[in-house]
Amino acid sequence: MIAAHLPVLLVVVPLAAAPLIVLLRHAGIAWALAVAAAWFALGAGLALAAEVARAGVVSYHLGSWPPPWGIEYRVDALSAFVIVLIAGVGALVAPYALRSVAAEVPPERRYLYYAVHCLCLAGLLGMTATGDAFNLFVFMEIASLAMYILIALGRHRRALLAAYQYLVLGTIGATFYVIGVGLLYLATGTLNLADMAARLPAIEGTRPVLAALAFITVGLSLKAAIFPLHLWLPNAYAYAPSAATSFIAATATKVSVYVLMRYYFGVFGAHLVVASLPVPQILLGLSIAAILTASLVALWQADLRRLLAYSSVAQIGYITLGIGLATRDGLTAAVVHLFNHGITKGALFLLVGGIALRAGGAGFERLRGLARSMPLTCFGVTLAGLSLIGVPGTAGFISKWYLVLGALEAGHGWLAAYVVLTSLIAVAYVWRFVEAAYLSAPAAGAARVAEAPLPMLATAWLLVGACVWFGFDTSFTVEGARRAAQLLLGGAP
Amino acid sequence: MAQLAGHYTYWVTVLLMAAGLYILIARGNLVKKLIGLSVFQTSVYLLYIAPGKLIGGTAPIVDAAFQVYSNPLPHVLILTAIVVGIATLALGLALVVRIREAYGSIEEDEIIAADARDGDRE
Predict the structure, then answer these.
(1) Over 50: is that where the pLDDT of A491 sits?
(2) Is A379's pLDDT higher than 90?
(3) B72 min Cα distance to partner chain A (Å)
(4) Are A60 and A72 in contact (CB under 8 A)?
(5) What's the CA gap between A366 and A112, in Å, rounded?
(6) Shortest distance, CA A362 to any CA of chain B (angstroms)
(7) pLDDT of residue A492 exceeding 50
(8) Which of A160, A174, A363 sits opposite B95 (nearest CB)?
(9) Domain spans of chain A, in order of start
């Protein structure tokens, strides 16, 4: 009975937890509710993934109105995969937040933090689960508004400006998306993505459809921080509370990339986007530029959080590179990297949150000799850093491997070489951390700091463990991504 | 010419869209930027609502006497979009209030200058 409603409960439970938290106004209860909602979402997400693996597509009709008249929630191989990533990271960040939020957010605002965290989780899950174009916009705005608040809760006053800039750019992005959806609706008369996909071939190549494609591409690229529309990202990641950064960095941009893939291959169709328009060439060009410039900028950052933020822009470049290849291996690489980079960056930001808590910041001058006082944290950062580079035995290697295969399959040997060579820049910026933490003497007169609190360390290490686990056992990630890529290229949404 | 006049709602939409984006980019005052953002969002409401109206159309109630119906769905969608727009504007203004408390200014260049003086201090 309850199992039939999982696609909607996945979204409704975190969504309902938020107002409940605001009514109860107690930070401890708020935290417990947020953890419960996040773990429920993870359970629902895993159950849905199992159901999708068994039955193919799970379709849920809201209010029993059949699509295309009613809103449909549609979970397939691709969305189930992204849901597991979001819910998994959410379920780890929620328990982590207890110590981190207590240290960074004033007491009277703590319960609000958890309310907004639940809203953000609900929004991101809703974006992934829904099969309705306008419903997706509403969830996108729920998630985005929640993120602006999460960022603004940062301690430094620059967090406010970062949130404001993200609000302006994010709203432009969402409005561009909704203009695109409006044009599609005027042209097709439907908002259901599957229905839209069935009606678009009849009017393919007409100007409103092309304009809609352009608007949706630009809008979602802003949300996904695809180079050169990434300007909001570094400050937002650097000044938000640690728990918020970890959650947003691991999930938010990935969901937007997922929506972009869904539109390109599930709605407009590969025959339009790939075969008759220069979209793949543009994506490849932007990705190549993103990887090189963002990696080089990351190298010169004075703060570890900003370094990781710029590295995120570069890593999104690898994901869009896979989309631009538009081959089976390329798309598999894009989907695998979406997941692997999500857990890697999540682990890194969780650990850096511990460092910021104990050392009072993540500037490189504070990291000197830190491995002596925080050995477990520093070892975790190093391991996750190896996954960021793509060293064999880590999750990052799997994505880079399929990216290289995809580039070779598409006949771009030089692109394969480019992926390998640019990974060397990642070696350089991860090395900067290793050099500071392991090979430098602590600054004279610096107080010896304690290891990060156990709950923070444990949740972070679970994700670090996942980075290593998915480097060896690829049955979930690669098989899931392969099914998703098959689905995308098959044309069905 | 008749075609231009017949599509006047689209011209208004495009004008508002461009004007909103221009204010957003050209102005350094954080409140004025939000006004531009609002104008930009409002143009989209028009984009959705105008085509929903059919001249001579009635409410979509099935009756043998009527053949032409107006589409009510865009109105419902835009009601939602208006709520989203209000929430965004309210949050934006709340952030501006906090920025003014923290920096003593709502001019973007002054705030950036204050941050630059600050250096990289935490």
Answers:
(1) no
(2) yes
(3) 12
(4) yes
(5) 31
(6) 9
(7) no
(8) A160
(9) 1-277, 280-487
Separation in Å, CA of B64 to nearest CA in chain A: 23
Looking at residue A155, its pLDDT comes to 87
List the structure tokens of A110: 């703590």
Q: Which are the contacts of B39, defined by CB distance < 8 A and separation ≥ 6?
A: B16, B19, B20, B23
Q: What is the pLDDT of residue A446?
A: 67
Q: Is residue B32 part of a domain?
A: yes
Closest listed residue to residue A255, CA positions, set A489, A84, A9, A400: A84
Residues 6+ apart with CB under 8 A from B72: B52, B59, B60
Instruction: Say whether B122 and A156 touch across the interface (CB within 8 A).
Output: yes
Q: Which residue from B21, B81, B122 is facing A360, i.e. has the nearest CB?
A: B122
**Alpha helices (runs of H) in A200-268, residue ranges in sequence order:** 207-224, 233-239, 242-261
Whether omega before B60 lies within 30 degrees of 0, making that bond cis, reads no
- For chain B, the C-alpha Rg in angstroms (whole number) is 21
Determine if residue B107 is left, alpha or beta; phi over 0 gives left, psi from -120 to 50 gives alpha, anything else beta. beta
What digits encode the pLDDT tens for the residues A97-149? Answer: 998 888 888 888 899 999 999 999 999 999 999 999 999 999 999 999 999 99
- Say how many domains are in chain B: 1
| Residue B74 structural domain | 2-55+66-118
Contact A489, A409 (CB under 8 A): no
φ/ψ (deg, to 5) at B83? -60, -45
- CATH number of the CATH domain containing B34: 1.10.287.3510
Contacts of B91 in chain A (CB under 8 A): 145, 148-149, 167
Identify whether the C-beta of residue A212 lies closer than 8 Å to the C-beta of residue A184. yes
| Cα A188 versus chain centre, distance | 31
Q: Which of A164, A186, A222 to mutate against chain B (most B CBs within 10 Å)?
A: A164
A149, A171, A303 member nearest B37 (Cβ) = A171
Among chain B residues, CA nearest to A137: B81
Cβ within 8 Å, pair A160-B44: no
Residues A127 and A142: beta-carbon distance below 8 Å: no
Query: Which three-class secondary structure state does DSSP give residue B65?
Result: coil
C-beta of residue A422 within 8 angstroms of C-beta of residue A292 = yes
How confident is the model over A430-477, as pLDDT tens digits? Answer: 999 999 999 888 877 667 788 888 889 999 999 999 999 999 988 888
Whether residue A18 has pLDDT greater than 70: yes
The answer on pLDDT for A174 being more than 90 is yes
How is residue A108 annotated by DSSP?
Answer: G
**At CB < 8 Å, which residues of chain A contact B?**
134, 137-138, 141, 145, 148-149, 152, 156-158, 160-161, 163-164, 167-168, 171-172, 174-175, 178-179, 182, 185-186, 191, 302-303, 360-361, 363
Give the SS3 label for residue A451.
Answer: coil
Mutate to test the interface with A, among B39, B95, B96, B106 (most CBs of A within 10 A): B95
Is B60 inside any structural domain?
no
Q: Distance (Å, rounded) from C-alpha A305 to C-alpha A233?
A: 11
Are A134 and B41 an interchain contact pair (Cβ–Cβ within 8 Å)?
no
Asked if A488 and A265 count as a contact pair (C-beta separation under 8 A), the reply is yes
